Amino acid sequence: MTTGGPRIEIPSFNPYRFAFPDATRVVQREILHLMKALRSQGFTVVVTPEDGSPLHFIAEKGLRDLLSHPAFVLVAGIPASIIAGVIANVISARLESAAQVPGRAAPSIGSELFIDIDEDGRHLRLDARGNPVSDAVVSRLIASMDSRAEAMRRAHATRSPYPEMPCPIFLEHGPEIAAWGSVAVRDGAFRVERAVVVSPTASAMIESGDLKGFSIAGIVPSAGCSICGGTYVDCEHIGGQTYQGATCVVTPQIRLCEISLVRQPVQPLATVEVISEP
Ligand SMILES: [Zn+2]
Question: pTM of the prediction?
Answer without folding.
Answer: 0.82
